Amino acid sequence: MPSANKLQFILDERARLEREGLLIHIRTIGSPQDSWIVVDDRRVLNLCSNNYLGFANHPKLKEAACRAVEAFGVGPAAVRTIAGTTVLHTELEEKLARFKGVEAAVAFQSGFNANAATIPSLVGKGDLIFSDELNHASIIDGCRLSGAEIVRYEHCNPASLEQKLTERYPSGSPNRALIITDGVFSMDGDIAPLPPLVELAERFNAMLMVDDAHGEGVLGRSGRGAVDHFGMHGRVDVEIGTLSKAFGVVGGFAAGRKIIVDHLRQKGRPFLFSSALTPADVAACSAAVDILQASDDLVRKLWDNTRYFKRRIREAGFDTGRSETPITPVMLGEAKVAQQFSRRLFEEDVFAMAIGYPTVPMGKARIRVMISAAHSKEDLDFGVEKFARIGRELSVI
Ligand SMILES: *Cc1c(COP(=O)(O)O)cnc(C)c1O
User: Fold this and answer.
1) Ligand 1 atom closest to the CA of 112, numbered from 1
2) What are phi and psi of 366, to 5 degrees?
């Protein structure tokens, strides 16, 4: 009988994560998502949620969800293609398409699933994907699932993309090519240079996909996203969105040319083989789109807060990297410093996460502050004051 523990590999891996300071500790939230939340029984200022517009606990969304539960129950009971598509689903998809200014949209259970459905439906073995080197993990997994060859280009660098396209995808190539970029990059808060990427996609006859998870509800008119921000309507083949960040609920979608969206309903495996979003999710998301269609007040408040916090945190002596959006990295250098900083913030009633290698490069550890329209100026003042105090205490400013 072999005596070795067949699960030893898990213990080894856990020991490695612990040794390298990469072991994840999960905090438990005991309140709705808002500007202040209860974390591990402590009431703290929330500076790390993706709840950009405060929709996660918005009365109109909650009311829409409750009404949907009354009318349609709690579960979808099937995948979309069998009996899981309610009128609420098609209504949301129509609203999303109108909001985004595209021909059609299709909803998925998450942004992660939207990528897993879309990328393998567009390219396969023998094809090429040109992917920004800092693209989100769900894009990378979608690319791997497709079986296409992945060619990484330098972050936000159209010259690097052009060089790779020239080398690998000369005109007359028999196979397909797909260029993929995040609209807004989640760790640095910088925006992809869409106009030159669009031009390259058109010149090389490649498909272009933008994952705008952090752009929706944030960039463009009333939060229509990165494509609207750059005025690139009709020139991006497909956009991926999430309903779990600015939209405040859960789910994802693909939006763009009708021919692609119809194709995803035939081919997208998470669409075909995983159950639909629940009626409550879909109705709440619909209410979020309605609010954005009616007014840009929340988006304005988000940007007002963002400018205010960034100015104050820079005045306090901190470096916010290359951020152009409400994602505000406060650069601290060493992972150990960032971890200690985050711990001290929590003791001072501020909840903000440290992010280190391998999520960001070695020596570029940071606290990632997420600004929301739900914050008041007093909340932001409170946060800056605590950052400044701890910054002096740890000699980083
Ligand atoms: C968060 C994120 C996703 C995943 O979205 P979920 O709805 O949480 O699954 C996908 N792509 C990008 C770029 C993201 O930032």
Assistant:
1) 9
2) -155, 165
Q: What's the average model confidence in pLDDT over 3-26?
A: 89
Specify the fold of 20-49+296-393.
Aspartate Aminotransferase, domain 1 (3.90.1150)
Architecture of domain 59-294: 3-Layer(aba) Sandwich (3.40)
DSSP-derived 3-state class of residue 295:
coil
Active site residues: 186, 214, 245
Summarize pLDDT for 288-312 with one digit per residue, the tens.
Answer: 999 999 999 999 999 999 999 999 9
Q: How far is the CA of 273 from the centre of ligand 1 (A)?
A: 20
For ligand 1, residues with CB inside 6 Å are 110-112, 136, 138, 182, 186, 211, 213-214, 242, 244, 252
* pTM of the shown model: 0.96
The pLDDT of 340-351, averaged and rounded, is 97
Separation in Å, CA 71 to CA 75, 92, 279, 280, 351: 12, 16, 9, 10, 38
